[in-house]
Design goal:
The chain is mainly α. The chain is built from 14 helices and 2 strands. Strands 1-2 form a two-stranded antiparallel sheet. The radius of gyration is 22 Å and the shape is globular. 43% of the residues are buried.
Length: 369
């Protein structure tokens, strides 16, 4: 499918899509981060049952991303009651705009230089490979912007809440964002710890999702065209895109869950400031329970360590201490919210592009699907 869109159209459509979806799926992302954390059992379970604290502050940390993307505005934003709303819009413009602009430009360029086979219109390099290359290029750019945001967000999601009667148990709370940000004041370069892990997760994810998405969408449109039911409406564009993206995203999400678990552990370990006091607190708790506190702490820290140990070493440690189940922790939840998020995200994005194109060139100038 091709559209007659400008870069501005792509930026606006990508921003609106991200703004819409981020708010809806953020609580599921918070729960996933907590489940994948090495402190999950200690903080969010009691006597083998899930603790109510797992579901507190589901939107805490939603204001983190803008602190990584707009450092010059940090002092103002930290004291602003509109922090969460600002972050959503800013993150949408920067990350989604960077990805989609790069993706569309790379895809168009690769298709233009891709020769056809002799005496045939069939392209030499199959389109799924071009789509995978384009999406991977977009991810490399997007991940550089997103890494500080992800590190801040995930550390803010793990901030321990107050008592149930405390006002800090509200879903929206800027204190978690500020608390996470303060951990990196003395060493801001730590905000980019985990870039490699984020790329290692997102590259195979997008390399799987986008070719499957483009293939599924093309097949659905061709089927509807043969049946005479293709209308070209915005509703059709959104629904077909949502179904294609949701199914492709679910498969890609489940397959890449082990990398996502490792990425979460690395990013949670990036905030090294306060580690000693937290270590002493946990040791006292475990000693009170009659456990070998030192051994338990060292095992948990080795599983979570993201600085000196590489991603492969962390993955091996998780496999040793928690088994295969540990590597797929949160996989079902990740698959579910990716289906919802990808379907809405790309559905809104493609509908937005079509809408902007229609406003600019009129129905007669619309590019064919």
């Amino acid at each position: 499918m091709s559209f007659n869109n400008t870069n501005t159209d792509i930026l606006i459509a990508g921003a609106f899509a991200a703004f819409t979806v981020d708010f809806l799926v953020y609580p599921l992302d918070t729960i996933k981060t907590r489940i994948q954390s090495p402190d999950y059992r200690r903080l969010y379970t009691k006597n083998g049952a899930i603790n109510r604290s797992l579901f507190r502050g589901l939107y805490q940390g939603i204001g983190s991303v803008v602190l990584a993307t707009l450092p010059s505005c940090t002092p103002i934003l930290l004291s602003s009651p509109l922090l969460n709303q600002t972050i959503l819009l800013t993150t949408a413009i920067l990350s989604a705009g960077a990805f989609f602009t790069t993706y569309e430009a790379t895809k168009t360029f690769l298709q233009a230089i891709n020769p056809s086979l002799p005496s045939s219109t069939t392209p030499l390099v199959p389109l799924p490979i071009l789509h995978a290359a384009a999406s991977s290029t977009g991810e490399l750019v997007s991940c550089f912007i997103l890494t500080p945001a992800e590190v801040l967000k995930q550390n803010a999601q793990m901030v321990v809440r107050g008592s149930p009667s405390s006002s800090t148990t509200h879903a929206f709370d800027g204190h978690a964002t500020r608390q996470a940000f303060n951990k990196f004041r003395n060493n801001p370069s730590q905000l980019w710890r985990g870039y490699t892990a984020l790329v290692a997760r997102n590259l195979p994810f997008t390399a799987m999702q986008f070719p499957l998405f483009e293939f599924s969408r093309t097949k659905i449109y061709r089927f509807r065209e043969r049946n005479g039911s293709k209308s070209g409406s915005l509703l059709e564009t959104g629904m077909v895109t949502a179904i294609s993206a949701g199914s492709a995203g679910t498969l890609a999400a489940v397959v890449t869950t082990p990398i996502d678990v490792v990425k979460t552990r690395i990013m949670l370990a990036a905030a090294g400031g306060g580690a000693e006091s937290q270590r002493e607190k946990v040791m006292k708790e475990m000693q009170a329970q009659g456990k070998d506190a030192k051994a338990e702490i060292e095992r948990a820290q080795q599983a979570a360590r993201g600085g000196r140990a590489g991603g492969l070493a962390i993955g091996k440690e998780i496999l040793r201490t928690e088994g295969v189940k540990g590597l797929f922790r949160g996989g079902a939840l990740r698959g579910a919210w990716t289906a919802l998020g990808s379907g809405l995200y790309l559905g809104v994005y493609e509908s937005g592009r079509r809408f902007l194109e229609r406003r600019r060139v009129g129905d007669e100038g619309l590019a064919p699907y």
